[in-house]
């Protein structure tokens, strides 16, 4: 085991997301005397199996398991977690978001959580990106479970691939396994998040209850009095209690076929037609496909409002092309938002110009509350200045 080595471990199924995630990793400050490595597992059968495979192949003492759509935006992230691990040998795992006390339902989002993933961009600036955290006065929260968006470990504990052979509850399980082995799980106090999760606030719940039942059978969460539920009626999580959506794949295929067919007309107004029924509106809330279509719809509203001559969908012929362009647009805007080095920002601005991204399109993204740009005008101002400069 190499005590002076960090290894980033990612299960991936999308090169666009993976490559941008790695761009952020390459910008991190590496503590003196330490080295880094990156292991990617492509199209893993499950999160546990992918992580277990990578864990056994790495000799790094410190392993950071993370989603491919997570951007580590604090340049001193490695210094941060090293500092935390060095404060107590019994700290086995660090998370970004966690639950001090899991509810009896096993659903982390139904109880109080600590940590942070959505920055307040009114206070986010270049010094925030380059700040060293934590200081000796900062505190750590002891938690029972952390979210799987990022899980940093200092001790290897086997992932329960025998139980969790899908993509749900692997994170809660690993948190409990760490504690079973005598290690604590912590989340640091943060004035600003150290990472951003570009997950589109949409998860796939088709097998959620299956693995929740497994979780509740393996780990005792039965005491309702000491494990209360606080957010059971939260409408954003009602899908947890739905029966399996039997026509999920049929609706999904239908939506993609409609996009492929209608893109040939190059008419941005057609996206409104997707929300003509309550069924599709509900499906939009629970699927990434619906989320993407709605995001493009919002962009089109701004483009039509400001009478643009070019539209986001111009030249696109398929759902997959639309998805890739949308992902790259968000990635380009995040580079500016998170103060990446100038070369990264210029590459982003050039791509936006080459793809005929309009200022109205940028406004449509900035004003979409589900994308967490919080109407940050810096991106818009930089792009506007760039277009003016190259046209002089």
Number of domains: 2
- Counted by DSSP, the helix tally is 13
User: What kind of oligomer do you see?
Assistant: single chain
Q: Distance N terminus to C terminus?
A: 58 Å
Topology record:
Blueprint: E1 2-12, H1 15-26, E2 35-42, H2 47-57, E3 60-66, E4 70-72, H3 77-87, E5 91-95, E6 97-99, E7 114-115, H4 126-129, E8 140-142, E9 145-146, E10 150-153, H5 170-180, E11 184-188, E12 195-197, H6 208-218, H7 248-263, H8 278-286, H9 288-305, H10 319-337, H11 342-354, H12 359-366, H13 377-390
Parallel strand pairs: 1-2, 1-3, 5-11
Antiparallel strand pairs: 3-10, 4-12, 5-10, 6-7, 6-9, 8-11
Helix pairs in contact: 8-9, 9-12, 10-11, 12-13
Overview of this protein structure:
Strand 1 (2-12), helix 1 and strand 2 form a beta-alpha-beta unit. The protein has helices at residues 15-26, 47-57, 77-87, 126-129, 170-180, 208-218, 248-263, 278-286, 288-305, 319-337, 342-354, 359-366, 377-390; strands at 2-12, 35-42, 60-66, 70-72, 91-95, 97-99, 114-115, 140-142, 145-146, 150-153, 184-188, 195-197. It is globular and about 60 Å long. The longest helix has 19 residues, at 319-337. Helix 8 (278-286) packs across helix 9. The strands form three sheets. The protein has a seven-stranded mixed β-sheet with strand order 2-1-3-10-5-11-8. Mean pLDDT is 86; it is low at 233-244. The protein contains 13 helices and twelve strands. The relative contact order is 0.11. The protein folds into two domains: 2-218, Spore Coat Polysaccharide Biosynthesis Protein SpsA, Chain A; 248-390, no CATH class. The protein has 392 residues and is an alpha/beta fold.
């Amino acid at each position: 085991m190499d005590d002076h080595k960090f290894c980033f471990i990612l299960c991936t199924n999308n090169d666009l997301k993976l490559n941008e995630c790695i761009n952020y990793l390459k910008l991190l400050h590496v503590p003196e005397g330490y080295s880094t490595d990156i292991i990617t597992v492509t199209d893993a059968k499950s999160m546990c199996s992918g992580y277990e495979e990578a864990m056994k192949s790495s000799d790094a003492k410190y392993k950071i398991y993370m989603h491919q759509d997570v951007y580590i935006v604090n340049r001193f992230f490695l210094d941060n977690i090293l500092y935390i691990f060095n404060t107590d040998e019994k700290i086995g795992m660090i998370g970004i978001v966690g639950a001090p006390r899991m509810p009896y339902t096993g659903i982390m989002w139904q109880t109080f959580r600590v940590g942070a993933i959505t920055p307040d961009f009114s206070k986010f600036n270049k010094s925030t990106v380059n700040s060293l955290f934590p200081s000796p006065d900062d505190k750590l929260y002891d938690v029972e479970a952390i979210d799987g968006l990022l899980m940093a470990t200092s001790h290897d504990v086997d992932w329960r691939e025998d139980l969790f052979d899908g993509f749900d509850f692997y994170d809660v399980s690993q948190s409990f396994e760490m504690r079973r082995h005598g290690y604590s799980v912590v989340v640091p106090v943060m004035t600003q998040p150290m990472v951003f999760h570009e997950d589109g606030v949409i998860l796939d719940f088709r097998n959620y209850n299956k693995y929740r039942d497994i979780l509740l059978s393996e780990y005792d969460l039965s005491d309702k009095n000491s494990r209360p539920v606080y957010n059971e009626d939260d409408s954003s999580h009602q899908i947890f209690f739905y029966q399996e959506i039997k026509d999920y794949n049929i609706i999904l295929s239908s939506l993609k076929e409609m996009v492929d067919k209608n893109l040939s007309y190059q008419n941005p107004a057609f996206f409104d037609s997707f929300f003509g029924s309550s069924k599709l509106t509900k499906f939009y809330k629970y699927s990434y496909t619906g989320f993407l279509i709605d995001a493009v719809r919002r962009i089109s509203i701004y483009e039509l409002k400001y009478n643009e001559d070019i539209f986001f969908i111009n030249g696109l012929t398929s759902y997959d092309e639309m998805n890739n362009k949308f992902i790259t647009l968000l990635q380009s805007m995040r580079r500016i938002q998170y103060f990446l080095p100038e070369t990264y920002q210029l590459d982003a601005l050039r791509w936006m110009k080459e793809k005929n991204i309009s200022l109205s399109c940028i406004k449509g993204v900035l004003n979409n509350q589900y994308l967490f740009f919080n109407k940050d005008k810096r991106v818009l101002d930089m792009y506007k200045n760039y277009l003016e400069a190259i046209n002089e």
